[in-house]
Write a structure and sequence with these properties.
This protein is an all-alpha fold. The protein has two domains: about 1-115, no CATH class; about 125-365, no CATH class. It has 16 helices and three strands. It is globular and about 80 Å long.
Length: about 375
Amino acid sequence: MKKRVWIGLFILAVLINGLAWISRNFCDFYIRTVFPFLSAPLSRFASFFPFSLGEWMLVSLGVFLIALLGVAAVFLIGKRAWAKKLLCRLGRAFAWIFLLFFWIMTCNCLIAYHTSPFADLYLQESGRFHTKEELAVLRDFMVENANELAGRMLRDEKGEVIYEQDMTQTAIAAMQRTGDFCPLLKGEYPPAKGLYFSHLFSQMDMMGYFFPFSMEANYNRDMYLVNRPATVCHEYSHLKGFLREDEANLIGYLACVNSEDPFFRYSGYLSVLGYVESAFLDSIQRDAAVYRQHPAISAQVCADAVFLTDEAWEKVEKTAALSTESTAKASRAVTSAALKMNGVKEGTESYRGVVALLLDYYFAGIK
C-alpha cells in the first residue's frame, strides 16, 4: 500500500512538472493563487529559528546519506543481518525524504521558472531593441549616482562602509514599496538570515541563497556590507515566485534604488553597475577614446565594488579545505546546469540579462 502511494505521488509530481513546462497560464495562475498560501506558512515557521533552517536541513540530509552509505558498506562487507534490516529501513526513509523534497521543490521552485516573464507582465514594450546611445545613457546615469552616493556613506577608520540601522526592516519596506507596481511583491517577508557556512559560500562565489525547502532568504555574512541590501532584496524576490536570476537582479535593484535610505540606493547601483559597464564596454568595442568621453567611475566606487574585502578573503582562505578556484568553478557549473534544466538556456549568463530589463524599465517604463 505504501509503495503504491509513493509511486502515485511521484507520478503526480512529475505530471505537474510536465504541465508547468507546457502551460504558462497554469504557472501564472499557480503563482498568483496557490503559491502564496503554501509558501507563506513555511516562511513563518522557519522564521522562528534564529539560524538558517534550510542550511541545516541540507547538513542533516548529508549526515543521513553518509549514514546510509556506511550501513550499506557494513552490509556489503560483513553481510550482517542487522545491517541489512537497518539498510532497508534507511532506504525506505530516504525514498520518502526524496519524495517530500521533490514535492517541495515542485511547489516552491520549479513551477515558478515557467511563469510569464517579468518584463511581459510589468514593463512596456519589453524585449524591444535598444540603441547603443540608450545603453550609454543608462551607464552614465548609474555611474553618476554611484559616485555621488559613495561620498555620503558612513565609513570606519579603514574606509569601509558601515550601517547602523535595522537592515532587515528597511529591506522589507523597500520590497513592499516595489509591490506598488508589482502586486506579487506585497505581503510578509521573514527576517533574512546569515549563512553559517559563509566561508564555503564565499568560495562558491555566492552572495546569497534561497532555500525552497524552508522558504528563507539567506545572505553571505563574509561579503562586503554594501552588497547585503541588494542581495537580501534579490533573495526576497525568490520568496515571491520570481526565480529567474535576471528578474531577481532587477527587483533587488529597484527595491534598493527606490528606497529613501542612501545606503540601500548605493547598494542597488553597485549591484548592477558591473553588468551595465561590461555591456557598455562591449558596445563601444572597448575604445579608450570613446570611453573617456563618459563619466569615470570614481576610485571610491571601484574600492566598494568588491565581493569580499582582502581581510575577509584571508579569513576564508585560512579555513578553506578545497581550492577556492576549483570550488567556484564547480559551483558555477552546477548552478548553470540547474538553470538550464529549468528552461533557462543561458545558465549563469542569465544574470547579465538584467541589463536588457533595465533598458526596458528606463526607456519604456512600467505598465
